[in-house]
Amino acid sequence: MANKSDDASAVRVDWDAEAAGFDEEPDHGLRDPRVRAAWAARLGTWLPGRPADVLDLGCGTGSLSLLAAERGHRVTGVDLSAPMVELARAKLAGRDAVFLLGDAAAPPVGEQRFDVVLVRHVLWALPDPSRVLRHWRGLLRPGGRFVLVEGVWGTVSPVGIAVDRLVGLLEPIAGQVRVERLSDDTALWGKDVDDERYAVVATL
After folding, report:
1. Beta pairing class for 97-101 and 114-120
2. Could you tell me the pTM of the whole model?
3. What is the enclosing helix (H) or strand (E) of 151?
C-alpha cells in the first residue's frame, strides 16, 4: 500500500497496523481458491507471456507479486509499510522476488528498468497522479506496459479515480490503452460489488 493523501480526501490509514489482518479480505490475501484463480487468470492476460521484470508498487503483502512470480516473472515489490514488506518477503520466500521499503510514488529502484509497472488500488491515493504516472513511465523499458487496477468506492463521499480520468492521464504518455471493467466479476472480489472497479493496460 502507498501513503494515502490528497486524492484520497484526507483518508488516513495506518498500514503498519493493518498489515496483520490485511490478507483476511478475499481480494487481498487470495486465500479462497476461486478468488485466487480469478486474479491469476486476469494477470495471465495482462502480463507478458514471456518472463518479464515486474515492478509491483504498493505491493502490500505480495499476493499479486506471488501470482506474477508463479508465472515465471521476476518481481520487485515496493511498499511504504515495513510490516507489509516483511509479510511479502515471507510469502515469496525462495521466489525470484525482491521487496523494498519505500514510497510507491518514487520507488527506490535506482537505474533499474522494468517491463511492467503493476499497481492495484494505489494510484488514486497518491498526490498528483499525472506526475506519478510520468515518473513511472520513466521506469519502463521501451515497449513496456502499465497494469493499473483502480476504481471509485463509496456513495456519500466517494474516493478513487474514475476510469475516464485515468485513461485521459495515460493517453499522452502511452500508446495503446485498453480498459477492462471488473465490477461484475464477483470471483475477483469474493462478493458482489456495486461500485466502479476496472483495470487499464497501457503499452508504450
Report:
1. unpaired
2. 0.91
3. strand 140-153
d(Cα 165, Cα 99) in Å, to the nearest integer?
30
Structure-block grid coordinates of residue 146? 502499465
DSSP state of 35: H
Query: Please, are residues 147 and 170 in contact by the beta-carbon 8 Å criterion?
Result: no
Per residue in 119-165, pLDDT tens?
A: 999 999 999 999 999 999 999 999 999 999 999 998 788 899 999 99
For residue 19, the SS3 value is: helix
C-alpha cell at 49: 507471456
SS3 75: strand
Burial class (CB in 10 A: 0-12, 13-18, 19+), 86: middle
